[in-house]
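pinging the channel bc i need a second pair of eyes. not urgent but kinda urgent?? the chain im working w is below, pasted from the shared doc
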Amino acid sequence: MNTIFTRASVRRFLPRQVEADQLIRLVRAGMAAPTAGDQRPWEFYVDTDPESIARLSQATPYARAAKGAPAVIIPCYRTNVWAPSCCVLDLSAATENILLEAASLGLGAVWMGVAPQEGFMKAVGEILQLPEDVHPFALIPCGYPAEPPKPRDKFDPERIHWIRAGSV
C-alpha cells in the first residue's frame, strides 16, 4: 500500500468543491477502522458551508488552514459506550483511514487535533451545536491540493529496537 508512504499533510486547497460521493468515501473509510470491542463510538460531521468552516478555522490556534478548505470532516465520539477510554484510540484509527483514503483519491487533507484540549473541544462543539454526549476529536480539512503534496520520509532505523530470543 504505497499510499502510506506518499500521503502528506495538505493545508492549501484549490477553490473547487469536493464531490459528495468523495466525501462519503472518506467517511466510509473512517468507519472501516478498527474499534475496541466493535463499539464504534464515532459520529462524523461533514461541513461544506464556508461560513461554518471559517468559524471552525478560528476554534483553535492550529486550525487556520481549514478556512480555505472546501470541506471539513469532524470526527466526533460518544462516550456512552462500554470502553470510553478507548474512544480516542478508535477515532485516531478512523482519522488515519480518512487521510489515507483522501490521498488515494487524489485529495489533500490534514489532521488538526481538537481532543483532548477541553477549550478546543468546547469551541468546536458550540460551532457545530453538538449534542451534549458527542465530543469533537479533530478537524480534517480536505479538498483538491493547491500544489502537489510533498511527503517526507520519516523512517529512522535508530528507533527500531530488536528483541530476540535469549536477549532479555
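so The CA atoms of residues 57 and 64 lie 5 Å apart. and The helical segments are 3-6, 20-31, 50-56, 87-104, 118-128. — does that match what u expected or am i reading it wrong
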